[in-house]
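User: Please predict the structure of the protein below. I'd like the answer in structure-token form so I can feed it into my own downstream comparison script.

Assistant: Understood. Taking the following sequence of 239 residues as input:
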Amino acid sequence: MPADSATAMNQEEEAALREWLASDADSRNTPLSAGYQGSVYLFEGPAGPRIIKEAIDTWPQRLLARRMLRREAGAYDRVNGIPGIPGSFGMLDDRYLVLEFVPGKNLRDPDNGITDREAFFAGLLNIIKEIHARDVTHNDLKRKDNVLVTASGEPVLLDFGMAVCHRRQGFFYRLLKRMDYNAWIKIKYHYATDQITEADQPYYSPTLLERGFRQLRRFWRIITFRQWRKARQRAKSSR
């Protein structure tokens, strides 16, 4: 992984990237994903594949989208070099964030390739501790899409779009750090918090806000008959 930001991208690669950005290639017109803030592309460059995050260029979202992408680039710069996090090559033209491409399967995939869950989640916990040591909190760990499983079964933490770089380890830092650990517990135990082992118990301490959301979610499931609808769907699929 690159040790520095945009300076790690040589002139040949930058020139090829600019040419691709201005082209009408299929890969340029077909994003891997797209949202209200921008799109994500795969660029096959001379130094290997790169992930390109492009801020949306339409008004009025443009200013906010670019500011958010700069914040994400700053978070990647802070955690650059940590094993298990894609390396960052920094911003290009204040509109594109260039990242290392890491092959693997999404944690959400039932066939994600994890053979040793304890080792995998211990590795993910170490990554979380490493970013916290650099005063960064991820803040979007509950989304399994943000965790990748490599071919060797190692965890990779993606998408620092919601991350916060903290100037000091005050109350806000401790709160978000606590929420990162709570999210780690939830994805490890599939939200079955009554099954947390004694060794993992210190990493789970729901905040008042999280408790409130949990009660609200339970109430919503009741009034929308979610469990009943799921049972009906299972019954239909088993016929």
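That's the full token string. The chain has two domains: 6-100, 107-223.
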